[in-house]
UniProtKB/TrEMBL annotation:
It is found in: Endoplasmic reticulum; Golgi apparatus; Lysosome; Secreted. Keywords: Carboxypeptidase, Endoplasmic reticulum, Glycoprotein, Golgi apparatus, Hydrolase, Lysosome, Metal-binding, Metalloprotease, Protease, Secreted, Signal, Zinc, Zymogen. InterPro entries: CPQ, Peptidase_M28. It comes from Flagellimonas lutimaris. This is Carboxypeptidase Q. Residues 260-447 form the Peptidase M28 domain.
Length: 465
């Protein structure tokens, strides 16, 4: 009897923690994503049936048609294509490179043309090499030491930075502006160390620009793998007279028409308030663009499906946007923002996934202090799913043009440690995407969209210029 009374007392006195409505909805989202998620299947098709989706390519158009068909199948209120003119740069036949330490003694190294580069002369380009650690070294060396040579930019990503995107930002200027700057000193071409923390044999492409460099003074630019960069650097220390040869056949063609792919669920209470979730549909051509950014596209598509399947009726209009041409022009993001402003659409929130399909850790938030604190206040709802990072920072390239005072922008932030192993390289392929990690990312995005929609953003004073 005493034991029974003790148990009864414990049952009565023990607090009963009922799940809140938000906890139930978020759990339903994660359960649906992890048991019936569609993102992985969509990505499988994008990656393995279509492949790399460089702007203006046949594959990019196939991706537009495929994703529109999939959005149509979800029973959204509206699905449409938004025309946008995009650049068309083609790589041509595969690049080839070697360095020569003495006549006839050569060592091949892996390279790839940087996106937007001009070709080498028909027979290739062969010249002496001068190694630098960054653009700032050019002025120190001067024209006398650079003219007639190939500039080798060999500043590595900083391995001490835990946020690998910070390491990337610290050296990507040599990839984008290296050729334009070297041309001012009479360089014949540039070779750039790949943006990769790992030592491997994959060259990583990426966009570059010539600025106001006259067309007849533009020089070819290529990336070399990190192993290749290490070998070339060591060779130059032992033999400063070594020469480098490379040949590439890339070409810039006329702009062509492509599309942003858009689908939406109309809001039940505030239909004129628009919330966007998206990624970029184009990719580089070396791999199949699974992490960059097929993952972000299929996660964004699944956000709307997850909310529908769990029975949630959004108050605001939820719109998925698959942007075209983020990689080498940002035309899709700029066009979407331009059309939105011309139509006087009111965007209150935008979320982008463009950091790979790895395990989600949280969000970076570009918003007022009040709105950042509001999102940070939901930390306990995300904690059971190991989502813990909620910090003020950037959001995403394609949603950036939407920014206005009072608007909340956010970026999904997965674990970054493996991202640059694959970024813009031949090994950005479907086999390197983990199904569960991809699905967790989609659920995490859908959960934030749900909370923002339910509670709204905190109004802040808009500054009129």
């Amino acid at each position: 009897m005493r034991t029974f009374l003790l148990l009864a007392f414990l049952l009565v006195s023990t607090p009963f923690f009922a799940q809140t409505e938000d906890e139930k909805q978020i759990k339903a989202i994660y359960d649906e994503a992890l048991t019936n998620g569609k993102a992985y299947d969509w990505l499988n098709y994008l990656s393995n049936q279509i492949g790399g989706r460089l702007s203006g390519s046949v594959q990019a158009q196939q991706a537009v048609e495929y994703t529109k068909a999939q959005l149509d199948s979800l029973g959204l209120d509206k699905v449409w294509l938004q025309p946008v003119m995009v650049p068309k740069w083609v790589r041509g036949i595969p690049e080839f490179a070697y360095f020569e330490t003495k006549p006839g003694l050569t060592t091949n190294v892996p390279i790839c043309a940087l996106g937007g580069s001009v070709a080498t002369p028909d027979g290739g380009l062969k010249a002496s090499v001068i190694e630098v650690k960054g653009i700032e070294d050019l002025e120190k060396l001067g024209r006398d030491k650079i003219a007639g040579k190939i500039v080798f930019y060999n500043r590595p990503m900083d391995p001490t930075l835990i946020n690998t995107f910070s390491a990337y930002s610290g050296c990507v200027d040599q990839r984008y502006s290296g050729a334009a700057e070297a041309a001012k000193y009479g360089a014949l071409g540039v070779i750039v160390r790949s943006m990769n923390l790992r030592l491997d044999d994959y060259p990583h492409t990426g966009s570059m620009g010539y600025g106001d460099t006259p067309v007849n003074q533009r020089i070819p630019a290529a990336a070399i793998s990190t192993n290749g960069a290490e070998l070339l650097s060591t060779t130059l220390k032992l033999n400063p007279d070594a020469k480098f040869y490379f040949k590439q056949n890339c070409k810039q063609l006329e702009d062509v028409q492509s599309y942003n792919v858009i689908g939406e669920i109309t809001g039940s209470t505030y239909p004129n308030e628009i919330m966007v979730v998206g990624g970029h549909l184009d990719s580089w051509d070396l791999g199949d663009g699974s992490h960059d950014d097929g993952a972000g596209c299929v996660q964004s598509m699944d956000v709307l499906r997850l909310l529908k399947e769990t029975g949630y009726k959004p108050k605001r209009t939820l719109r998925v946007v698959l942007f075209m041409n983020e990689e080498n022009g940002m035309r899709g993001g700029n066009k979407y923002a331009e059309v939105a402003r011309n139509k006087n659409e009111e965007h209150v929130f935008a979320l982008e996934s463009d950091s790979g399909g790895f395990t989600p850790r949280g969000f970076s938030i570009d918003a007022s202090t009040e709105n950042v604190k509001q999102i940070q206040g939901w930390r306990d709802l995300f904690e059971p799913y190991l989502i813990h990072m909620f910090y003020e920072g950037g959001s995403g390239a394609d949603i950036g043009p939407l920014k206005e005072d009072g608007m909340v922008l956010a970026g999904l932030r997965p674990d970054t440690q493996r991202y640059f192993d694959h970024h813009h390289a031949e090994n950005d392929t479907f086999e390197h995407v983990n199904k569960r990690e991809l699905e967790l990312g989609a659920a995490t995005m859908a959960s934030l969209v749900y909370l923002i929609d339910k509670y709204g953003t905190i109004p802040t004073k808009k500054i009129k210029g």
